[in-house]
Write a structure and sequence with these properties.
It contains 13 helices and 12 strands. The protein is globular. It has a single domain, classed as NAD(P)-binding Rossmann-like Domain (Rossmann fold). It is an alpha/beta fold. The strands form 3 sheets. It has a 7-stranded parallel β-sheet, with helices on both faces. Strands 7-9-11 form a 3-stranded mixed β-sheet. Strand 5, helix 6 (155-174) and strand 6 form a beta-alpha-beta unit. It binds nicotinamide-adenine-dinucleotide and 2'deoxy-thymidine-5'-diphospho-alpha-D-glucose. Nicotinamide-adenine-dinucleotide binds at residues 7-8, 10-14, 35-38, 40-41, 63-65, 85-89, 104, 108, 129, 131, 160, 183, 185-186, 192.
Length: 351
């Protein structure tokens, strides 16, 4: 892996992954970051790398729906491995507007697979980053394992399930060297403030309402984003081609417990709210998400046993680091929330 194409590298996990590879891991090659810069993509997250490591890091604005454009990038940069993060990733948006999810997550992945297949002599690995949501919803007990039947419930998870099946088919039919990871909920630096944790951090910081869906008792298995990055890299290096690996934090929590933890830490770490109001008082129960999956929980025994991977952070340590990061990075927050940000993208990248 000398010339690694990372798709979606300006998004939350992709940006953390590129930083991990270039700044912390034993990877010695070059990264080409292909990203369409949707509302969720933010080149600011990696701006310093463009300046500090110009020989090892290149950003290219392109859309995986545009097969010809992606083909040019694969050939210009002699790409020999692909790590595919690019996707529409927010469940609520997939419910109100599924089109982009079908086009990017399914057709975009198909384009990449087809292009990789046409360059199979050069491409040694296609790693596909997927989600535990493809397995559907659990009751009070049990865990998702790699062989759990797919039962996606939202347009987002159905589109990811579809892309997973295509990846599997390209391995089975054409012998494309692939690996797949199905990971639980990530949190950490650079997450767009539409997802539960960054939304709650910023609203609680500013004394705004904290919208908890339904009864707040849905369960997610939280993983600090750097632990997801180490897992993806372990799979890319040592994972068996054609295999899938579940990745999770063994950190099952009800949403309400997550929001309480954020409120209490912000009461401790940030300036007090007017009148000494405690942040838990901001919690507001709102209408439930349609088709809201009740519980996700990952059995990550396979990656632990076969690849020796372990998460480094507990929820207690990871959430403290995450809150610290949001408190210290107001310029990034302002940029992703402001209309100027879109203008800035136009000025920087021309579209
Ligand atoms: P994100 O929404 O923060 O980032 C997605 C990135 O993909 C953005 O930079 C966006 O500009 C880019 N993108 C979107 N459409 C594109 C297109 N058509 N062409 C090129 N680039 C495009 O997402 P994320 O949370 O970082 O998730 C990354 C991947 O990990 C996704 O595949 C997601 O399904 C998967 N995943 C996410 C989580 C999680 O908790 N966030 C958990 C498991 C798996
Ligand atoms: O499980 C992995 C998945 O985790 C990824 O594949 C997705 O890309 C990622 O977005 C995430 O999906 P979720 O729907 O679980 O994450 P979200 O942060 O949107 O919501 C987490 C939980 O919090 C969920 O039960 C819905 C609830 N929620 C969310 C928001 C945004 C609220 O109660 N209030 C909110 O405002």
């Amino acid at each position: 892996m000398q010339n690694l194409l990372v798709t979606g590298g300006c998004g939350f996990i992709g940006a953390n992954f590129i930083r991990y590879l270039l700044e912390e891991s034993d990877f010695r090659g070059r990264i080409i970051n292909l990203d369409a810069l949707t509302y969720a993509g933010n080149p600011l997250s990696l701006r310093d790398l463009e300046e500090r490591l110009p020989k090892r890091y290149t950003f290219v604005k392109e859309d995986i729906r545009n097969r010809e454009g992606v083909a040019r990038i694969l050939d210009t940069h002699a790409v020999d491995a692909i790590c595919h993060f690019a996707a529409e990733s927010h469940v609520d948006r997939s419910i109100t507007r599924p089109d982009d999810f079908i086009q990017t997550n399914i057709i975009g992945t198909y384009n990449l697979l087809q292009l990789a297949r046409e360059r199979q002599q050069r491409i040694s690995l296609f790693h596909h980053v997927s989600t535990d949501e493809v397995f559907g919803s659990l009751g009070d007990t049990g865990f998702f394992v790699e062989t759990t039947p797919y039962q996606p419930n939202s347009p987002y998870s159905a589109s990811k399930a579809s892309s997973d099946h295509l990846v599997r088919a390209y391995h089975h039919t054409y012998g494309l060297p692939v690996t797949v990871s199905n990971c639980s909920n990530n949190y950490g630096p650079f997450q767009f403030p539409e997802k539960l944790i960054p939304l709650m951090i910023l609203n609680a910081l500013e004394g705004k309402a904290l919208p908890v869906y339904g009864d707040g008792l849905n369960v997610r298995d939280w993983l600090f984003v750097r632990d997801h990055c180490t897992a993806v890299w372990a799979i890319m290096q040592r994972g068996k081609r054609g295999e899938t690996y579940n990745v999770g934090g063994r950190n099952e929590m009800q949403n309400l417990a997550v929001v309480h933890a954020i409120c209490d830490l912000l009461d401790e770490m940030a300036p007090a709210l007017p009148g000494g109001k405690r942040r838990r008082e901001l919690i507001t129960y709102v209408k439930d998400r349609p088709g809201h999956d009740r519980r996700y929980a990952i059995d990550c025994g396979k990656i632990e046993q076969e690849l020796g991977w372990q998460p480094a952070e507990s929820f207690a340590t990871g959430i403290r680091k995450t809150i610290r990061w949001y408190l210290d990075n107001s310029a990034w927050i302002q940029a992703v929330r402001s209309g100027d940000y879109q203008k800035w993208i136009k000025e920087q990248y021309g579209t």
